[in-house]
Amino acid sequence: xxxxxxxxxxxxxxxxxxxxxxxxxxxxxxxxxxxxxxxxxxxxxxxxxxxxxxxxxxxxxxxxxxxxxxxxxxxxxxxxxxxxxxxxxxxxxxxxxxxxxxxxxxxxxxxxxxxxxxxxxxxxxxxxxxxxxxxxxxxxxxxxxxxxxxxxxxxxxxxxxxxxxxxxxxxxx
Amino acid sequence: xxxxxxxxxxxxxxxxxxxxxxxxxxxxxxxxxxxxxxxxxxxxxxxxxxxxxxxxxxxxxxxxxxxxxxxxxxxxxxxxxxxxxxxxxxxxxxxxxxxxxxx
Lengths: 173, 103
Description:
- The complex is a heterodimer of chains A (173) and B (103).
- Chain A is an all-alpha fold.
- Helices cover 75% and strands 0% of the residues of chain A.
- Chain A has two domains: 1-92, Four Helix Bundle (Hemerythrin (Met), subunit A); 129-173.
- In chain A, helix 1 packs antiparallel against helix 2 (27-47).
- The longest helix of chain A has 29 residues, at 144-172.
- The radius of gyration of chain A is 21 Å and the shape is globular.
- Chain B is mainly α.
- Chain B contains three helices and no strands.
- The longest helix of chain B is centred in the C-terminal third of the chain and has 31 residues, at 60-90.
- Chain B is elongated and about 55 Å long.
- Chains A and B meet through helix 1, helix 2, helix 3, helix 4 and helix 5 of A and helix 1, helix 2 and helix 3 of B.
């Protein structure tokens, strides 16, 4: 019962902050609400027994991605003093599209007789183990090829970001 | 009443559609990227929940989510770098004004 209450509280927090991310006019506030939404997702990961993933979520998403977004927001507005308020377009078509998609998915989910009856026993197989150890063994076992590919992807993204952003400084000199 | 897989999937679907709404309505490119992060998180929530509620729960869902996080981090870094580079050259951050390749 406590789990159900916790789930609904986290779901409400997540949807509320996500709605504020996409509607609030101040982009800096939107970034802070994004951090809140990502934190709610991390809490849901804990409820699902994915402790390592929750830690990664906090470290990478909130610690790196949101901070990077805030950096770029500050870099792109303080130079010109441009207003930080956001303009919107196509509000009604976008609301229509996303509402219809949401209702389609939700109705399909509720109508399908999926394995909804699987008990939410968090203390089952996975949660008793150290999820970091389990994931590490799988990553260096049968998932070693995608693991290495991801490391190459991250390295190339790093180099590309340095090249893209650093280019203008050389030209200015 | 227990929390079932359907609860998580419905929540992830709603989060996904909120992200899509934001990606369509935002003009600011950084705002679009932030809405896309919501979409990525909806997908990750689906993967982790589906992996958790399998008859034999194992770590595959979490592994897929880890790869999605890594790809999303690379996407976010490159997207923000491109936004910064365009801003330096042309002083714009709105996606609909980035029309250099239009003609």
